[in-house]
Amino acid sequence: SLQNVSQSAQAFITDSFGWYYLLVVSLFVGFCLFLIFSPIGKIKLGKPDEKPEFGLLSWFAMLFSAGMGIGLVFYGAAEPISHYAISSPSGET
What we know:
Elements (H helix, E strand, L loop, with lengths): L1 H36 L18 H30 L8
Membrane topology: Multi-pass membrane protein
InterPro entries: BCCT_transptr
Family: Belongs to the BCCT transporter (TC 2.A.15) family.
């Protein structure tokens, strides 16, 4: 069945290429840290004499709000479906 084939393929891929995934993610994070702390990270986006439109606290608030919003949108539909699909054992509520 498709489920068995998919599970076998997933097990093969994770067993064979798990190290590669960790390596690629680690290199990507290292590259991002390099960009942040190198002189490239000091480049301003916009005109040299412009002030930023939003402060640091505003940026953190916007990122937090976006994260909470996508969580509510996604899990608002996905969580009830997962509870319905994986019901509790008989006799338990």
